[in-house]
């Protein structure tokens, strides 16, 4: 059974069970508290507290998806038989609809009948009095009713009580399904979370502070829901009867490109394949190598691969062939990869060129060391030559035995604090960063620029709807002093002619110097006024609505929910220029634009 067949069987099964199939969201999440999308449920978080929105947005309280996911916590572990950075998460979700009985029944039927696999055992929550959650006897009874002979293991809060994704969110007890691979090892393949509660904090706070009777308490959800996640890579390993995920059809063709000459250690083959595969998906979703946030993650992946290329004297063309093979293999399901093919390859070569200028000197200095490498020394090697922590550990051998990621990260944070203090001094003590999640600025000068871009983004949203139709809905935005990035729902590439019309509409409003006014009104009143809003956002009872209106005729060009800041007149914006239009994810397009 190929991985493509597994994806199709999963989506077909849940579609037949009344679930709306929702495309994968971008690896760049709307939630500013999370660096990257780590699970399938992230795009659905708002619906657990407002199921009626799910009915409005999806026509159902039940959805299913195959979600692109990325976990930075596993970067240091990549190289063994199971850890990955990028992976695909199959999931089905219920927002105040079905609950434990149906969720467990669907999972068992899909695993044992649709896929024809055998379940080794399942786990359930043993309960924890300090958080007021009893043992999950209901799930035990459901499993036993379906299969009296099934083995059930009771586990604790750290294993089978799923915490919030991000800084807060829905959570609850889980039941996990284990199957056996070709090594006769029991592997967890499916985690079914019963979201009965809301916790106003992170998973770490839940596990650490809540057990210690922190003031933060679990709140019962008015509409309990279901959130499930099943890793495609692990499921393929079970279905294809392989010993590791890297022997499945998801990786085998890539590995073959590295096994001829010269021979590489298996662990390094896995690192290269994982990092290049993950880089393709990050690049296709608009991430670019940098020294901060998601760009730093991408840079770590690429540069670690580049170091291996140098150590084993590999042809750089081999890496490009792997990138192209990833695009070809996954492009039929994730169309955005094929659309971004040229930019992915171009960015790969550009980053390689940037890194190659210092790599040789850095590796030479590292391998010549004769004394233990301190965290400060390790960070200096990273800062000076761009050599990632993982490579310092590998090449340093006995000199890095006592060097830990935790100590290295402490040095990194010290550097950030010094930089921040320097910036604050430079900007007269006004602070380093204005950050609403959507708008980011380092000082008052940058704030003036992002304010112009923010109003321009409202004009862009309105212009897109006028040119492309009202099917266009905002799916997210990110505004810095360099550019605005606007994501919107649309099923095809926007033509150059259409982009020119959009750009022309925006600049006409700028030239005519429309007024920018705002009113504070009740949420229901704002909706009736026709104000556009970000459908995934949860708004308070009272909201601000910004209207961009012709000063003489009273024509309204744009009306949106927004907290500001904005210019007072569109004439302040300057010339609006669309730089790029590309795919963000399936069914979602992305525009990057600037003002001059």
From TrEMBL:
Pfam families: tRNA-synt_2c, tRNA_SAD. Its EC number is 6.1.1.7. SUPFAM superfamilies: Class II aaRS and biotin synthetases, Putative anticodon-binding domain of alanyl-tRNA synthetase (AlaRS), ThrRS/AlaRS common domain. Keywords: Aminoacyl-tRNA synthetase, ATP-binding, Ligase, Nucleotide-binding, Protein biosynthesis, RNA-binding, tRNA-binding. GO terms for cellular component: cytosol. Belongs to the class-II aminoacyl-tRNA synthetase family. This is alanine--tRNA ligase. It comes from Candidatus Ryanbacteria bacterium RIFCSPHIGHO2_01_45_13. The lineage of its organism: Bacteria, Candidatus Ryaniibacteriota.
